[in-house]
Amino acid sequence: MAVVTSRSAQVLAQKLQSEGIRDANVLSAIALTPRHLFVEPVLAHKAYENTALPIGQGQTISQPYIVARMTELLLQGGSCGKVLEIGTGSGYQTAILARLFSHVCTVERIKSLQFQAKRRLQQQDLHNVSMKHGDGWQGWLSKAPFDSIIVTAAPVDVPQALLEQLTDGGRLVIPVGSEQQVLRVYQRHAEQWHSQDIETVRFVPLVPGALA
């Protein structure tokens, strides 16, 4: 089974490459990460399809293409230092980041999802991750500043706290909008933030606050 699973992840990486993902390190991380461990067992047979899947609590595990694309955009900033993830969810995106960045700080507002993600990351021996149960809109001020920030749910407007927690030259990759959403990259230059729209996307809303 381990051989089959490994091959499935490799095939997924090859599929993503054919769809435009170019960063070899991102593709390698996808090929090394068993996505079926991050979904419910009843959905494991769909784990290596290029599709989003429900993970409970009204949340989803993102489409692998989007996971790879957002990670690739982060790496284009040139830093593999400390990254902040808003929306731990299943932990799959966290696992990809942990293979590529020196340290991952990740915030999840739903306690039960955070607990499950922590267990999965430990099973993968990914220990360069700090986890927090809290309000993603606020970022993680005590761990700031961050070289990179990735947000896996969509606010209508970009939280100012996240922009301010970037290092000078740091990058924020975030979906923005309600009915119409766009994937956007912000880069900080002193006290200015330059933005670029990448492509249309569809994410669950970034909800303020935290749930037990």
Tell me about this structure.
The chain is built from six helices and nine strands; from the N terminus they run ααββαβαβαββαβββ. With 212 residues, it is an alpha/beta fold. Strands 5-4-3-6-7-8-9 form a seven-stranded mixed β-sheet. Helix 1 runs antiparallel to helix 2. The mean pLDDT is 94.
Task: Indicate the topology.
Layout: H1 2-18, H2 24-32, E1 53-56, E2 59-61, H3 64-75, E3 82-86, H4 92-98, E4 103-108, H5 111-123, E5 129-133, E6 146-151, H6 160-164, E7 166-177, E8 181-189, E9 192-201
Parallel strand pairs: 3-4, 3-6, 4-5, 6-7
Antiparallel strand pairs: 1-2, 7-8, 8-9
Helix pairs in contact: 1-2
Keywords: Cytoplasm, Methyltransferase, S-adenosyl-L-methionine, Transferase
Protein name: Protein-L-isoaspartate O-methyltransferase
Active site: 62
Strand ordering within the main sheet: 5-4-3-6-7-8-9
Note the gap between the termini: 36 Å
State the helical fraction.
25-40%
| Biggest pleated-sheet summary | 7 strands, mixed
Number of helices: 6
**DSSP, total strands:** 9
**Dominant shape:** globular
Report mean pLDDT, rounded to a whole number.
94
Low-confidence stretches: none
| Percentage of residues in DSSP E strands | 25-35%
The class by helix and strand makeup works out as alpha/beta
The Cα radius of gyration reads 16 Å
H and E string: HHEEHEHEHEEHEEE
Function: Catalyzes the methyl esterification of L-isoaspartyl residues in peptides and proteins that result from spontaneous decomposition of normal L-aspartyl and L-asparaginyl residues. It plays a role in the repair and/or degradation of damaged proteins.
Enzyme class: transferase
Pfam families: PCMT
Protein name: Protein-L-isoaspartate O-methyltransferase
